[in-house]
Amino acid sequence: MNDTTPAARVLQGLQNDRADLEDFYRHLHQHPELSHQETATAESVRSRLEDAGYDVSFGIGGTGVVGVLRNGDGPRVLLRADMDALPVQEATGLAYASTVTTTDPSGDTVPVMHACGHDVHVTALLGAAGLMASSRDQWKGTLVALFQPAEEVGDGARGMVDDGAFADAVGAVDVALAQHVMPVPAGRIGTRPGAILSAADSMRVTVHGRGAHGSMPQAAIDPVVLAAMIVVRLQTVVSREVAPTEPAVLTIGSLRAGSKSNVIGDHAVLELNVRTYNEQTRTSVLDAVRRIVTAECQASDSPKPPEFELFDRFPATTNDTATTEKVAAAFADHFGERHFDAPLESASEDFSDLPEALGVPYSYWIFGGADPSAYQAAEDAGRVAQDIPVNHSPFFAPVLQPTLDTGVEALVVAALAYLGTGG
User: Fold this and answer.
1) Chain region(s) in the chain for CATH 3.40.630.10
2) CATH match for 199-314 among 3.40.50.300, 3.40.50.1980, 3.30.70.1060, 3.30.70.360
3) What pTM, to 2 d.p., does this model score?
4) CB 194 within 8 A of CB 318
5) How far is CA 280 from the centre of its chain?
6) Model confidence at 1: pLDDT above 80
7) 3-class SS at 411?
8) Is residue 159 within 8 Å of 77, Cβ to Cβ?
9) Which CATH architecture is the domain 6-197+317-419 placed in?
10) How far apart are alpha carbons 213 and 115 in whole angstroms?
11) What does the pLDDT look like over 294-331, one tens digit per residue?
């Protein structure tokens, strides 16, 4: 770590802020809120940004918050954190574990947990925003701290962009930056130019048959058999229609049909998920799904055409190469051997909707949250996949430190790669 950089000087204040940030994180983890319900989280964010001297716009896209800190002429850098939690029953056993339940959009009562680490993201960005505000002699330009709702359902970034107040709140920016905590050893940080996260498309497919008594199959068009043939045939899309060098995933996660063992129903519903990394493959795979389903329905003499509904759609996250190289160089200087080349991830995000709408380059990186000693033990035993909880698991619990410090440091270092007077 280079102690003479603007980033190092700004981060000297972290030792004074650390205990407060840890307390804030515990509170946030214990009080999670579902997508589009992040009202208390957003209010806490607004209060802290205003106390730090930011001009704050509130309620953008529902519960989104934008804080702007102007510090003379210079680049304009956007840092983003997502705020929402998941309908998961926490099983971490932490003293500050969530016991929150709430009503979801369907009216059901569900448990709520920060099972994806967005509480880490919010805390880290608030920490970075506070340090930047208290060290204005170390940088020039404008810092935009954006706190986004509803990432988990894929429409939070787009909801902010579509809000008429968004453009005025954010203004013109030169670059957008974001990060995500992942189940790698805490203290490590990974960058990757080009594709880093996949696009995701969920599709609900309804196919139609003709119902009958289970003892009289000749009178039916069996939607269970039809759906089963579709499931088998869809396995060939990736294996036979996508080049082996092009990553893609097609998963049928749900198949529902019938109500009783001796009743042949009249329809079946399949829900599937597609992960791809470029628009050509994305379009090709989705078109193949429609083609195969339609053909199988025709082969079964289905009485009605199939119905297709796309939902929970996420864009691919494809880092700008020049931006990522600039950030990676700053990380290598600050973190040393803790910086690594991140792998291609099959998870998905909607962050890229923000820079795409603003017309600016972006970089998105990952940092670790797993206990380093536990991770090493699991790796030595060949049991990382079994023993290290991943995002969305009820056991997902980033260790408090050095996870929080790393998240704060990364945002400060990346921002100052553009804003630092010595950079």
Assistant:
1) 6-197+317-419
2) 3.30.70.360
3) 0.93
4) yes
5) 22
6) no
7) helix
8) no
9) 3-Layer(aba) Sandwich (3.40)
10) 45
11) 999 999 999 999 999 999 999 999 999 999 999 999 99
